[in-house]
RNA sequence: GGAGCCAUGCCGGAGCGGCCGAACGGACUUCACUGCUAAUGAAGGGUCGGGGUUAAACUCGACCGGGGGUUCAAAUCCCCCUGGCUCCGCCA
């Protein structure tokens, strides 16, 4: 949630953000009004409550014959307090609902507008070209005995698949490469739960307008997470962290589940868009003052990964209207997918400033010893989807695929993935 | 699935319906002392919110797993929910 103090002191800043996102500015005024109503109701309750507390002491100290009269008055007061308390709770709930409608305040410089209004920050690598007819990742995956969509569909339905042989090995290699790099950069690895309680799912903001993207298990009222970000954000909920040694960095490894509701007919071929995949996710708890610098570091680590894998890509600054509600800024890295003739998202990294931590009550102590909400950031370090770009980019005329050098140690030295039975 | 126990501050652990924001111990911070890190003595700290202040000071309220209830008054009594632990059974 946004900072209620900012709402009071500088509502225009929030309005500007809402406008950049293409959201309704009037909800800011509604929230301000709800805040005022809430504080007025709270003040009234607290005043009555103080009076009641004072009265309680008198009752206790009173002599036997004074008591009945005092208690009669105290009973009236108790009724008033109860009513005032109910009003205060109601006003607080109304404020909560109003403020939940406001999405995180975007950072200065984020391009305004919708999905198409992104700004390309930089590109890296040549667009690969082939002197033969390039095969797409699924065709390659089938030649290599690496990807089996038919059996995936037989067992689990559309958008499910088996990774087999070098395909399975490739994914594990990719994850291990990413994990080693994360370790080298000071991340603590974490294998996270993929089923979480409703509070955690809600706290991380995934039960908002995109709730239908999430798998729910009604028998146990648990949600399957679409990213380990959920568990990683919940990890330190209700805690006060010590950031004296710098940011806390975690690398969460988990299987991710997404319903892909509303994307019927889109990316139906291969493993580009699937219901289940693996991901190594970076998650950082940082002093808000350091958040933007940390965000740049996260992108840099992502770029190092893509470069090590020999992929061509561009880094984009995602437009305000295309940000999730928690993100104040988001950088996506999109790799070139030869058979699609376009860039496709391989990583995403968001700076959520203090938006997430406020709801999850994750704080840290600043130099003065006061507790304040931390900034949270997250970013992809590797996912199953990368296999698409790797196979297509490094394919050769005979259907074999050259293994990028950085990956070879994780594949027992294998330098070429060869078609099976060839 | 059956039976029982428990939920209090950073941790351990007390707590008679008002004297409890909460004993005691540890950890922590500060000061003193032994020429240094150790030992000892003393003092001090919770969280969230409202008001107030340039900032403090100050002040009020809430918080003893969560939600209801009883009462003038609840950590303490009653109900519901959630979580954890132990034993038995079952099981990949």
From TrEMBL:
It is an enzyme of class 6 (ligase). The keyword Nucleotide-binding applies. Pfam families: Seryl_tRNA_N, tRNA-synt_2b. InterPro entries: aa-tRNA-synt_IIb, aa-tRNA-synth_II, Ser-tRNA-ligase_type_1, Ser-tRNA-synth_1_N, SerRS_core. Transmembrane segments: none annotated. Keywords: Aminoacyl-tRNA synthetase, ATP-binding, Cytoplasm, Ligase, Nucleotide-binding, Protein biosynthesis. Its EC number is 6.1.1.11. Residues 1-29 are annotated as: Disordered. Pathway: Aminoacyl-tRNA biosynthesis; selenocysteinyl-tRNA(Sec) biosynthesis; L-seryl-tRNA(Sec) from L-serine and tRNA(Sec): step 1/1. GO terms for biological process: selenocysteine biosynthetic process; seryl-tRNA aminoacylation. L-serine binds at residues 227-229, 281, 380. ATP binds at residues 258-260, 274, 345-348. Residues 136-404 form the Aminoacyl-transfer RNA synthetases class-II family profile domain. It catalyses: tRNA(Ser) + L-serine + ATP = L-seryl-tRNA(Ser) + AMP + diphosphate + H(+); tRNA(Sec) + L-serine + ATP = L-seryl-tRNA(Sec) + AMP + diphosphate + H(+). It is found in: Cytoplasm. One of its GO terms (cellular component) is cytoplasm. GO terms for molecular function: ATP binding; serine-tRNA ligase activity. It comes from the Bacteria. Catalyzes the attachment of serine to tRNA(Ser). Is also able to aminoacylate tRNA(Sec) with serine, to form the misacylated tRNA L-seryl-tRNA(Sec), which will be further converted into selenocysteinyl-tRNA(Sec). Consists of two distinct domains, a catalytic core and a N-terminal extension that is involved in tRNA binding. HAMAP family: Ser_tRNA_synth_type1. Homodimer. The tRNA molecule binds across the dimer. Belongs to the class-II aminoacyl-tRNA synthetase family. Type-1 seryl-tRNA synthetase subfamily. This is Serine--tRNA ligase. It comes from Leucobacter soli.
